[in-house]
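Hi team,

Filling in the usual template for the complex we talked about on Friday. All components are listed, including any nucleic acid strands or ligand strings, so the model treats them as one assembly.

SUBMITTER: L.P.
PURPOSE: interface mapping
COMPONENTS: two
RESIDUES: 614
SEQUENCES:
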Amino acid sequence: MVNPWGEFKRDVCRALEAALSKLGWQPPRPLEETLAEPPDPKLGDLASTICFDLAKSLHKSPTWLMAELSKALEPAGLIARVEVVGNYLNFFVDVQKLTELTLRAVEEADEEYGHLKVSRGKAVIEHTSVNPTKPLHIGHGRNAVIGDTMARILRALGYEVEVQNYIDDMGRQVAETLLANQLIKRKPRAKFDHVLGLIYADMHRRVRQEAELEARVREILAELERGKGRWVTMAKRLTQRCVKANLETTDRLGVSYDLLVWESDIARSGMLDETLERLKAINRVVEGTGDRAGTLILRLADFGIEDKVLVRSDGTAVYTARDIAYQLWKFGQTKSGLRFKLHSKRPDGTKTYTTAQRGKSVAKFGRAGKVINVVGAEQRFPQQVVSTALRALGLERESQNSYHLAYEHVWLPSGRFSGRKGTWVGFSVDDVVEEAVARAHTVVKEHAPKATERFWRKAAEFVGVGAVRYSLLSTSPEKKIVFKWEEALNFDRNSGPAIQYSHARACSILRKAKRRGGKHPIDVFKLPEERRLVKLLSKFPEVVREAGEKLQPYLPALYAAELALGFNKFYEVAPVIEAETPQLCAARLRLVNCVRITLRNALDLMGIAAPERM
RNA sequence: GGGCCCGUAGUCUAGCCUGGAUAGGACACAAGCCUGCGGAGCUUGCGGCUCGGGUUCAAAUCCCGACGGGCCCGCCA
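RESULT (copied from the run log):
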């Protein structure tokens, strides 16, 4: 798969390497690290600051080194020429070669452009993983969008990706919700997950005040732990219904799952005991003493990690214990297995499976080479315990391939979200998407007054969803987001809809052009706006690669906004259909088509629709 | 007490990992383009690296110390 900008970088490195060896100088560090983009394209397309490094290692003046090095450099491949400015070595890309290479790469690869297929491994991504007792609020939305986008990026890079959604159907929240469901007769009328969220908040307040209710919650919890009895049956029914409602929400966002993993199925699989036995066998798990008597403690002090209780004195396991076992299973490193059956189908055609007691035991799930857990940043410590436990078990490779994609939470202007206090009301993903779509409906109608209601509805849906997804994705995950309606509903320049709009505009030009194709000289593009676009297009595969390697799913969002902006500027100064010559027209049509393809591919990576009209 | 993350114009944000030339973009505000292949547009202006020290030829970036915000260090969930 062609990676035009990557090739230019490689050519620069090769030229540098050749020049250095000609002079008999050792490269002081990887050559790629000395490359940077000059602040002004007039200075060049890539700059190397290598002479500063050489000055240190060879004890010569940078100016002298630059003179020698530039004499020894021979431009080759995509390099047009090299200039020395100050102590910078500035490489200019051969615009014509880059243009031809890029346009051809985009046209030929089409929907595959940017898909580098650098890996053949399997990656498991766990995301969403919301307690099955409430609706998703916008913070859960951030998790789901980050995870879903990451999955799309890794697929583009050639990974076989399996998305798992972990469902804790045995936690205290389930117990309290079951009690609420039984005791609260007058239930609010709403979508099932919303009903549960509301009655849970109500019940939680009462449980804290009434000791008798607290005792009943504990009874229920104990029964869920034992896995037998009517509460277990009721829990199953209630959580199933809730998950179904949650999936309606994520379906609307365009988020898909390959597998739902239920805590109760993991609990009955025996993999927890198996994991504890293995850790005991290497003396990593010991019995607690003093005020921790009766517990089992994981010792990782020699890895610089504090002791962690895995099993409580009442014999129940803490979350981290289950997380270790689950992580081992994701890597195919447990003897105990799970059983699966088909759960449902997503609108995009994905078949979602679920773990199940009476399912089939099939080998296709788990067995990953790389595991990414999209989990809140506050869980850094337990996530570190998990990967270190793998290392302690001698699974060095698995430990190194365990990634915690940590993200900070979404806050309300008034503070944190709280399921217990019910502060999510009005800020559920359902509410926000509904509002965004309603707002989009008004805007779409203004812009296409002659269209049909059917068109407005359809357009409003992908514009609204696009705005929400983009706003959740575009901030880098380690930054806290304070939810503001004007940002979630942003249709301005830096937004999902703005990118969709640029795409639709490109489509419109291509539609109006009577004929495509036709020959043109390779040096047609004279305008800086044209050249800038070509350069941007050539960088897309590099963006996808970096996003995958560094687990930074927001990079395609930033890139797409930049490309859309670059296209708008081109559009303003460069008539396409009415271009001065037929050759220029043909060339610009090619360029517009390549922008269209790349914008669409970038939107695809973000799970945002790329409409031809809006 | 120990540790982790964040701090960039009035607001939001990129750059920090891998130090490099004039810190990139959006919103808001002000002025302009005046309907052109879709104005959800373009152009211009305004304004910024929390503070103090250190390392370096060079610091938004690395190190130390403050300050502000958040989080973790539970047999909680």
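MY TAKE: The mean pLDDT of chain A is 95. Residues 582-606 of chain A form the longest helix (25 residues).

Thanks, L.
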